[in-house]
Structure formats: C-alpha cells, structure tokens
Write a structure and sequence with these properties.
Elements lengths: L5 H8 L7 H12 L5 E4 L9 E5 L4 E6 L17 H24 L3 E6 L4 H13 L2
Parallel strand pairs: 3-4
Antiparallel strand pairs: 1-2, 2-3
Helix pairs in contact: 2-4
C-alpha cells in the first residue's frame, strides 16, 4: 500500500530539501555577522549525511530540522492516513538524526540542531557562540 494518496504524495514531493525559509533566514543572520560556511554539504567523507551548514575548520555542523519530518516535541503532527507507515517513517528519521549526531561526534564534530520554528536571530546567536567558544 502506498504511503499516501497521489495528492498528498505530490505535496510531500514538493517539500524542499535545502534552501528552506528557516534555513535561509539563519544563513542571512550568520552571513551578516561575517561568518562564512558551506551549504548542504557532507561534513565527513564516508558518512552519507548532509548538514545544512558546515563550518569545516571549526568542525561544526548545523542542521535546521523541520517540525513535521523530525518530530518536534512542540509541533509534531502525525498523519491519520496510513498512520503506522508514517509513524515508522518519522521514527526512522529521528533515529537517523541521533545516529548522525553520534557519528559526527565520534569524528570530533559539534552538531547544532535548530528547529524550523526557532527565531533565526536566536538560532544564529547559538551558532556564533559555539563557533567563538575556545
């Protein structure tokens, strides 16, 4: 059985993987403060995961997570159609996020996870503080 009906499938396929509004807002804040970064890049070779922002010299990877796809504790929703399929899919996303965090940490990276609903200025400040920490 397919995960969704054709209309829902088309809507889900249209979701951006990169350059989302929250991501762009955070990038603008960081760029405005003079920070430079790579966009949509794998931080570590051999780990098939891409971070939204990468600061390779400081070994900092930033992920801007969508509330739906990554099960935000404040805003997560679960579709009623094919509920078990979606529950499994979303749980797998969260497990993959934790696995990514662990793999990057093993390589000496700092991972920053930002929810899409967070204020871009506050989120950018968190990234700046991490980058400027000794």
């Amino acid at each position: 059985m397919p995960a969704t009906d054709p209309t829902t499938s088309a809507r889900m396929s249209a979701q951006r993987r990169r350059d989302t509004k929250p991501e762009i807002a955070i990038r603008r804040e960081l760029h405005r403060s003079g920070l430079r970064y790579f966009v949509d890049r794998a931080p570590v070779k051999g780990v098939r995961r891409r971070a939204d922002l990468v600061f390779p010299r400081r070994k900092v990877a930033v992920f801007v997570d969508g509330c739906f796809w990554h099960c935000c504790p404040l805003h997560a929703t679960y579709p009623k159609n094919n509920a078990q399929w979606w529950a499994d899919k979303l749980a797998a996303n969260v497990l993959r996020d934790r696995d990514t965090d662990a793999r990057l940490a093993e390589q000496g990276w700092t991972v920053i996870r930002i929810w899409e609903h967070e204020d871009p200025s506050t989120a950018a400040e968190r990234v700046r503080n991490t980058l400027l920490a000794p």
